[in-house]
Amino acid sequence: MLQILKQKKRFCATDTGNCIKYRIISKIRTVEKLAFSVLFSVLTTTEIFAIRAVQTPFEVLRIRIQTQKLNHNMKKVIICIIMLAGLLSCTALNAQSKHEFSIFAGGGLSGLRYATEYSGGKNEYGGQIGLGYRYFFSSNLGFVTGAEVSLYRSRFSLNSDNFATSTMAVDHDYDDFEFRSSISEYEETQNALFLQIPLMIQFQKGKNHQFYIAAGGKIGIPVGGNYRSAVGSIENSGYYSEEDYEYTTQKFMGFGTFKDNSFTGDLKFKTAFFASVETGAKWKLKDGLSLYSGVYVDYGLNNICEEISSAKQFVSYNRSSPRDFSINSVLNSQYAQNSFSQTFTDKIIPVSVGIKLSLTFGSNTQAQPDKSESKAPAENRRQ
After folding, report:
1. Model pLDDT for residues 227-278, shown as the tens digit of each residue
2. CATH code for the domain of 310
3. Is 225 within the bounds of a domain?
4. 38 lies in some domain
């Protein structure tokens, strides 16, 4: 250990420039480790909340498999971002002064905004992590772009204690019947993951510590999505019009009262377009290294709801295994009441508000020529 410390001292004493680069790269690695820790905490917390809604070991295993689908995509994208962060930060050490490279993370209320006849989606805590690039036209004005991964989370609850719906189905004997359901204590959580590309203009003013504001838009490409629902109680029955009789207790046919059920599935979304604004302070740590701290708002401008198929009902009957009926998400299904089918919602808007920190490499401060050096050639010519 002592030999390693002595080698570091000799290295810094003989080459000051490389020593500075070495220290900056060490800090970058610390930031990468912190990013991995934050990512692990977020994904683990998401899985814990999902598992609390279920009780049996088989349901816990099913929830973990569904959660890992979204987490696997998120991990791959974020690992690529962190690897690129190290490369870009090293490049920034030798970049011209009008370029800035950054790695950033943020978090706050981040969810899917929609409304239904019964209730609306409530935003949960989400976040973002990514890489940024700034090109400055002058010391005050620049262009901002990059790539970021954003997580949107929302929660939905049915206000109705006994929500009734029905759909036509076919049983294992190929007989048509009306599958009726009455649901109580229903809750659903939705997750959506987007790869976002910002296109913004930034204005800043000040010397060592500057005020900044950036405004523009973002393009959000859907990477993945899923939902998890928990049902306190669901009562199923089958009405056969030919017999004019309603079966209510035959559980082998999926009829009866079922309690404490949970369901999971995937969600698909359209490409999102955002209006975005960010403002805060830029703190100069040293030459070529700055810290941005501020707040941001991303508001969706278009509807990201996929077209809902008429065949996808809120409660679906499983002819091959009637006891394994399923409940689909309120975001991608429809229900029927009084022989009238309708969707829960047909408009979904992603919205995110939070706090953001960005570690930036490079500086837009234009280097001033040394007046003594510029005068020296002229004096030599006169002599």
Report:
1. 999 998 999 999 999 899 999 999 889 999 999 889 999 999 999 999 999 9
2. 2.40.160.20
3. yes
4. yes
Q: What is the CA radius of gyration of the chain?
A: 28
Q: Which of 298, 259, 304 is closest to 277 using CA atoms?
A: 298
d(CA 117, CA 191): 21
**The pTM is what?**
0.71
- Read off the pLDDT of residues 34-74 as tens digits, 9 standing for 90 and up: 444 544 444 444 444 444 444 444 454 555 555 555 555 55
Cα separations (Å) of 275 from 112, 246, 303, 332, 349?
Answer: 15, 53, 13, 25, 12
Is residue 64 in some structural domain? yes
Cα–Cα distance, 289 to 370 (Å, whole number):
23
Backbone φ and ψ of 71, nearest 5°: -65, -35
Give the integer Cα–Cα distance in Å for 215 and 360: 19
Flag whether 374 is in a domain: no
- Structural domain boundaries enclosing 59: 2-363
Q: At what angle do helices 16-52 and 57-93 cross, to 10 degrees?
A: 160
Name residue, tokens 């394994």.
324
State the total domains in the chain: 1
- The secondary element (H helix, E strand) that includes residue 289 is strand 289-300
Which tokens belong to 378?
Answer: 């002229």
Spell out the long-range contacts of 94-99 with Cβ–Cβ below 8 A and sequence spacing 24 or more.
Answer: 95/362, 97/362, 97/363, 97/364, 97/365, 97/366, 97/367, 98/135, 98/136, 98/137, 98/142, 98/364, 98/366, 99/133, 99/134, 99/135, 99/136, 99/362, 99/364
DSSP string for 79-102: HHHHHHHHHHHHHHHTS-TTEEEE
Q: Which two tokens stand for residue 293?
A: 């701290």
The helices-and-strands tally (H runs, E runs) of the chain is 4, 16
Exposed / middle / buried, residue 171 (Cβ in 10 Å: 0-12, 13-18, 19+): middle
